[in-house]
Design goal:
By secondary structure, the chain is mainly α. It has a domain of 46 residues. It is built from four helices and no strands. Helix 3 crosses helix 4. The longest helix is centred in the N-terminal third of the chain and has 17 residues. The N and C termini lie far apart (56 Å).
Length: 81
């Protein structure tokens, strides 16, 4: 075992690891443009008109050949508020 002249600071080490993990976790969500960006206006208008997320997903599938889940649309629109 090698002995160092400096003291081991456990608090500093824990904070460094927590910071590293926070940065790694944050980087996974925003990779670039969403395929829903082109349809934001229409999605918001249809949602305000009373369309459910399932209806929006079907509309994207039929009209624009975009396959996406209703929960992804929900998260996308929630992020736009």
């Amino acid at each position: 075992m090698v002995k160092n002249d400096t003291c081991f600071d456990a608090v500093k080490e824990v904070e460094a690891i927590k910071t590293k993990l926070r940065k790694a976790r944050r980087g996974n969500y925003v990779k670039g443009k969403s395929k829903l960006d082109k349809y934001t206006g229409e999605l918001i208008a249809m949602r305000q008109a009373g369309a459910s997320f399932a209806v929006l997903a079907e509309w994207l599938s039929v009209r624009h050949r975009v396959k996406i889940t209703r929960m992804s649309i929900c998260r996308f629109l929630r992020a736009r508020k």
